[in-house]
Design a protein that fits this description.
With 388 residues, the chain is of the alpha+beta class. 41% of the residues lie in helices and 13% in strands. The structure holds zinc ion.
């Protein structure tokens, strides 16, 4: 791969700059010779968070701080595309077009309202650019490994770069598009941000059963995303067909996996919805996110709920009382040992050899309170199993 170090002024870089509001992309620079946002690049992120990052870019220029290296890819026809630096170039282009303002002497200024000398200073600032030439795979490999300034690429953004092609382009138009009317509904179940490719990543994860990279590789040249889209919609509709209410705790659960495991079972929506509501209100459940899997699995695995356990002080009080009563009666302080016929019938266990148990199981309405607590020897507690 060949690389060449070049210098461009801000004015040159932003010559012919266009910003596409609809797609939130900077399009061209260098009089149209530079493509700012090739398809494998990310959406423009610097305008988020009240534009703090794009303002910081302009502040750096005004203070003549270095903006870091830019990397361009030189195509065989001589055109260039930005490999790294699109966020910074888009910030500069948007500022020169008065799309946002910066503070100067405590007042906000758009570019054309700044004093002439400051306008000149910005336009004449030079940026260093590495222009690279190589095969597609060389460039992409390299793009994965360069140290990216600013917001680091996350895994899905990297995969989009590596497996760029018609499939990624089409998939992004659906799952990375903040103007898609479904995004709000999806956000109830899918965690993250559309722009950072979290929805696309989830859709791919679900359809590929966790093999995202293999799936992207296999479908790379396809122009249709039917399977990806219909599987995603199936999972969402399946959730809605079982739980009529939405809870914050539903967001970001492994719905794809739950769908794979349980979608062939039949559920009564009314019953499931009512049970979910009851459990979400249960003060003894510590892990409310586990409620949905617990219900889908037929209310078997209470470990998912992390039902509150007895605290140490309660256990100690119960142990003392039980032991005092057992000594007086001449029987074991484990009530189950005391009922047996073996040697342990009169054994007084140490506290460390006993565990707390719900007399009436939590799943049968028993509470995690002192009145419902008994100490059992470890063997008997294990034998009672996971019925707490
Ligand atoms: Zn026992």
């Amino acid at each position: 791969m060949k690389t060449e170090l070049k210098q461009y002024t801000v004015a040159e870089l932003c010559d012919g700059f266009e910003y596409n509001e609809l797609e939130e992309k900077g399009l061209y620079g260098l009089s149209g010779r530079l493509t700012i946002q090739p398809e494998y690049q990310r959406n423009y992120l610097y305008a988020e968070d009240n534009g703090k990052k794009e303002v910081a870019v302009i502040d750096s220029v005004l203070k003549q701080y270095p903006l870091g290296l830019l990397y361009f890819n030189r195509l065989p026809d001589g055109r260039l595309e930005v490999l790294d630096g699109q966020q910074r170039i888009t910030s500069l282009g948007r500022f020169l077009q008065d799309k946002f303002s910066v503070m100067s002497c405590d007042l906000p200024y758009r570019f054309h309202a700044l004093p002439k000398d400051k306008q000149n200073l910005i336009e004449k600032t030079t940026l260093l650019v590495y222009e690279c030439e190589g095969t597609e795979s060389e460039i992409k490999q390299w793009f994965q490994t360069i140290n990216i300034v600013g917001i680091p690429l996350n895994l899905q953004e990297e995969l989009n770069a590596v497996y760029s092609g018609p499939f990624v382009t089409k998939a992004r138009s659906v799952f990375s598009n903040s103007r898609n009317a479904n995004v709000q509904k999806w956000g109830a179940y899918v965690h993250g941000s559309v722009k950072r490719q979290d929805f696309l990543n989830t859709a791919l994860d679900w359809v590929s059963h966790g093999e995202v990279e293999e799936y992207m590789q296999a479908h790379r040249q396809e122009t249709q995303i039917d399977e990806l889209q219909s599987h995603f919609n199936d999972v969402i509709s399946w959730i809605e067909s079982i739980f009529a209410d939405r809870y914050n705790e539903m967001c970001g659960l492994k719905w794809g996996k739950l769908y794979d495991e349980y979608h062939e079972q039949t559920y009564d929506q009314q019953k499931m919805t009512a049970n979910a509501e009851k459990l979400m209100d249960d003060p003894f459940i510590k892990n409310r996110k586990g409620v949905f899997e617990y219900l889908l699995g037929g209310e078997q695995d209470t470990k998912l709920l992390e039902v509150r356990v007895f605290d140490e002080a309660t256990k100690r009080r119960v142990y003392k009382r039980q032991t005092a009563e057992a000594r007086a009666a001449g029987i074991s302080n484990c009530p189950l040992c005391a009922m047996g016929h073996e040697a342990h019938r009169t054994k007084i266990w140490n506290e460390k050899d006993m565990d707390a148990d719900h007399v009436q199981a939590w799943s049968k309405g028993g509470t995690t309170s002192e009145e419902n607590c008994q100490m059992l020897c470890k063997t008997h507690n294990r034998a009672k199993g996971n019925r707490s």
